[in-house]
Amino acid sequence: MATPEIGKAYKRVVSPHNPPLRVIVVGAGLGGCAAAIALHHHGHEVVAVLDKVRAFNRLGDSLGLGENAYRLLSRWGCNVKEVQDIGNQSPTMKIRRWHDGKILAEQPLIDMAGYIGHRGDYHDIFLKWVGERGIPIRMGCEVVAYSDADPVPSLTLASGETLTADAIVACDGIKSLARHLVLGARDDPVSSGYACFRAYFEPSAEMIADPARNAFLKEDNVNFWIGPDTHVVQNTLRGGREFNWILTHKDDGDVPESWFQPGDMEEVRRLVANIDPDIREAIRSTDKCLDWKICYRKPLPTWVSPESHRIVLLGDSCHAHLPTSAQGASQACESAGTLAVCLGLVGRDDVKIATRAYEKLRFPRTRVSQTHGEDLRDRWHNVLKNVDEDIEIDPEMVKIKVSSLPPR
Ligand SMILES: Cc1cc2nc3c(=O)[nH]c(=O)nc-3n(C[C@H](O)[C@H](O)[C@H](O)COP(=O)(O)OP(=O)(O)OC[C@H]3O[C@@H](n4cnc5c(N)ncnc54)[C@H](O)[C@@H]3O)c2cc1C
């Protein structure tokens, strides 16, 4: 059901199934939206995208969308210029020494580390793309139970309504309910040993006028300060009118796994006491921040339900990434494309072969991109340990590495 907004040149793939496979997507985050768009593109019928919240707010802060995601979204008929235009416009990012801001490496803001934008702004556009395709998004629909019956799996909403489909794609995030069904047990988060303090705000007129705080407000930019066991990411959005800093630090406390836990600014001020003076006061003068414990899950033994093999996990529900991977949303797009293609390659009775092929194809790829995040964090946190001031660091030691991109 391509509408004029999608563009005249866009061609949706004709479903190999008659009638098309009916698929339900649980979760309308970036992963769920990408899944809906990819499934639609490949000719499947997305019966509905369900989300438990009644409305979406502009939550989170900066999020990277890599070139791998852009290529797929373009292929699916999305006008990616819409997300590029609202993202950070800096051509490069600078990786700096913690205490004095000396630039250790500079690299283009493309490829896997991608275009940085506000998660909420990107999400608005993804939701719009889903809507343009006539795919129903049902808000306030919390899935409270799954039935893994073969060949017709189902889910139950909090309202008591039951829905069935040929396949159910659970993009229900890091605290996924579907993951319990798939694993047959609850899996607890594992602490990464780090947490982030994060703040996102519109700088005040006083801050913009204050030379001690405005060094990075003049235009869009992306900077990283790396030091022993810590790093700060700072970027602007909207030409410097919005400001984001994220301080990653050793986590020896017990901050709960939450996107909304308030942070302790006194602790932040202590942690940045000796950072580059050009950024120090901009951080220290911030009035509030969030404290995100960086948790991850051990790689899951399976992403597919045990009985029908027709309920599958996608996105953070099965392959959450560390912030230093900058690939959470982009890998969700890759998974969406792979699943949609696999479902088009099998007969109606062989959906289980498609879901298992999806899992086998995607697991190694996401492991590589997850471990890149660990590798980068460890390189940043260790490279300056026991190194004299005057020793030059090889820029390659601190650059974000580009994973191989899918073909155009
Ligand atoms: C509030 C929030 C803020 C974030 N901020 C950032 C950020 O600043 N930077 C960054 O890089 N990443 C951030 N992320 C993570 C990033 O969005 C994801 O890594 C990426 O977009 C892939 O996410 P996803 O769609 O798989 O999961 P999510 O984005 O977590 O989306 C899951 C969706 O499923 C819905 N859901 C969950 N359970 C149910 C259920 N039982 N029934 C129905 N619906 C359900 C949720 O309401 C949610 O909309 C944030 C995630 C969240 C939820």
CATH A-level architecture of the largest domain? 3-Layer(bba) Sandwich
Helix content: 25-40%
Q: What small molecules does the structure contain?
A: flavin-adenine dinucleotide
Largest sheet: 7 strands, mixed
What overall form do the CA principal axes indicate? elongated
Look at the structure and name the CATH superfamily of the largest domain.
Answer: FAD/NAD(P)-binding domain
N-to-C span = 25 Å
Structural class determined from secondary elements: alpha/beta
* CATH class category name of the largest domain: Alpha Beta
Mean pLDDT across every amino acid position: 91
Low-pLDDT stretches are none
Q: What name is given to the CATH topology of the largest domain?
A: FAD/NAD(P)-binding domain
- Helix count, DSSP H or I runs of 4 or more residues: 11
Beta strands, count: 17
Protein name: FAD-binding domain-containing protein
InterPro entries: FAD-bd, FAD-dep_Monooxygenase_BioMet, FAD/NAD-bd_sf
Keywords: FAD, Flavoprotein, Monooxygenase, Oxidoreductase
Organism: Bombardia bombarda
List descriptors.
FAD/NAD(P)-binding domain, seven-stranded mixed sheet, 2 domains, alpha/beta, 11 helices, 408 residues, binds flavin-adenine dinucleotide, 17 strands, D-Amino Acid Oxidase, Chain A, domain 2
